[in-house]
3-succinoylsemialdehyde-pyridine dehydrogenase (Aliiroseovarius pelagivivens), 477 residues
Amino acid sequence: MIEKRDFYINGKWVAPAAANDCNVIDPSTEEVCAVISLGDQADTDAAVAAAKEAFKTWGFSSKAERLELIESILEIYNRRAEDLAQAMSIEMGAPIDLSRSSQVGAGSWHIKNFIRAFKDFEFEKTLGKHAPNDRLLYEPVGVTALITPWNWPMNQVTLKVVAAAAAGCTMVLKPSEVAPLSSIVWSEIMDEAGTPAGVYNMVNGDGVGVGSQLTSHPDVDMVSFTGSTRAGIAISKAAADTIKRVALELGGKGANILFEDADEKAVKRGVLHMMQNTGQSCNAPSRMLVQSSIYDRVVEEAAEVAGKVQVGPASEEGRHVGPVVNELQWNKIQDLIQKGVDEGARLVAGGTGRPDGLNKGYYVKPTVFADVTNDMTIGREEIFGPVLSIMKFDTEEEAVEIANDTVYGLTNYIQTQDGARANRVARQMRSGMVEMNGTSRAAGSPFGGYKQSGNGREGGILGIEDFLEVKAVSGWS
Ligand code: NAD
């Protein structure tokens, strides 16, 4: 069992100010796999003070210094890939092959994209021919609080930490208390990379403790948060008193629209995408909208694909889905599946209870409902588990209306061979991202949402810009 109670503050591992142990549970076994400590106000204050002091120099560091640091982080990250993969598998249940490929891979992909974007970025520009003597200086926002969830741990940590460092910000990372182990490895990487003392700090804690302390701290200039819309609202309110910049990456209820000319792999692709990471992705295509002429065939195929999805422990190699993250989520998902049945949706695969032979661990049956409508709970709420809702539509207009009829607006998906229709529908989607026919976002393309899915953009150059202020300097040539 891992015991790691220390926090990383001002370039050193330091003991918590007060004893406040917290067990980390392996969702594959329900056993305690680690003990960490949850910080209190004194730990938060120490980390923020270190970041504030370090900003006096890092805030004015050269592009070359920042680049050297980020390149060094990438090299060590790649070397520690297996440690990161193992940590994520234990803490949040990602099957080890998924951890090694997508979970770890997302982090290195983001760091590489940041390096590329950063090299090209000009921190000083003129306003152009109409104001040749006015200059725009892109400067770091200052001390930042970075608060991350448990579902794609390194994806989210790299998106925030590396962008903040590239911008010249200093930071306090508070990873999810549910999945803190990979961030401990990450902090070792930041240490070995030679990050100047105080530029990067990490304090473990929960939302009501360290989370709230950071979001209301007078010396924190910006909060970058990824997590639930519920916490995003609380954070926005807490940050308002000191007018902090707040960047939010929140929940989703993505529509995957299958028109009658969708390609032959679209159904399988949509179901497996939904089940990836055991359905615990903010951009999961959780509502499959299907044109009525192909509806019955699609429902049958989706049920068949879901029925073949293997479920098993995270430590097992091979292609399967793991458990969901914890008991709280397991119970919530069971309730929602039951609500689906009670509210009249047609269960065509899975259902409540554990899959056969998996009596210990937070395992959920890959589940598919047909005949779902947006007024049902499962049509509206983010389930965050391996549960797909299939809905029927007749016309393009109806598909757009159903897709947009949600408080969320993160990612929507379109499957059609008709390019004109794909572009028309994409423009009408009220979401930060639209992906067509199985393509995924290009390197450095921004990730973020409309409406209650948030207001920030992460990844690539727009991800770095989120951490920059713009200063207009006039009368200087
Ligand atoms: P969560 O909101 O419960 O917790 C996220 C983080 O916020 C944790 O570190 C938690 O300790 C902290 N926190 C909670 N309440 C807080 C408060 N009042 N003040 C400060 N910090 C607080 O979310 P979760 O269960 O860890 O993650 C799942 C959610 O994250 C889902 O809704 C998912 O859609 C969302 N998510 C969004 C994106 C995106 O980029 N849009 C990516 C991944 C996950």
